[in-house]
Amino acid sequence: MIKPRTASRAAGFLLLETMIGVLVFAIGVLALARCVQQCMDVESAKVWDERARVALENRMAEVEAGAVFFETTKEEKLKGMFEGITLVQSRKPLRLMDEKRRELTGLFQIQLEALWQESGGKQSKVLTFYVFQPQR
């Protein structure tokens, strides 16, 4: 037969084991919650980055097709599915010469920059390309 004093010690030890088990489980749950939050932040950043990439590609296609023409730096807040993105576009003439030392005109370096605000701060994505735009 177990003495009452030994039984109470065993019950106290069981309570201590249970409390330690609950503590370890709680720490695991907190660590898992932090991982889930980081996954959600990364997914949000991925969505914003994809939207910015599509906005830049669309504007590049418009510039190459001649549908959009601008002389200087221009800033535009986009609407629709690109709400929250600001597009900064600039055009710089290229000073190139041909083999006969004549200046090649109508060649430009176009830089498009998409800016947006995310939970981690300001973000941006830049696309630079060259285009031929004859003088208008």
Detailed description of the structure:
The protein has a four-stranded antiparallel β-sheet, with helices on one face. Strands 3-4 form a two-stranded antiparallel ribbon. It contains one helix and six strands. With 136 residues, it is an alpha+beta fold. Helix content is 46%, strand content 30%. It has one domain (4-132). The model has no long low-confidence stretch (mean pLDDT 88). A hairpin with a 7-residue loop joins strand 1 and strand 2 (85-93). The chain has one helix spanning 4-65; strands spanning 74-77, 85-93, 96-97, 103-104, 107-118, 121-132.
Distance between the first and last residues' Cα: 106 Å
| Rg value | 31 Å
Total strand segments:
6
Number of helices: 1
Key terms:
single chain, 136 residues, alpha+beta, two-stranded antiparallel sheet, 30% strand, rod-shaped
Question: How would you briefly describe this protein structure?
Answer:
Helices cover 46% and strands 30% of the residues.
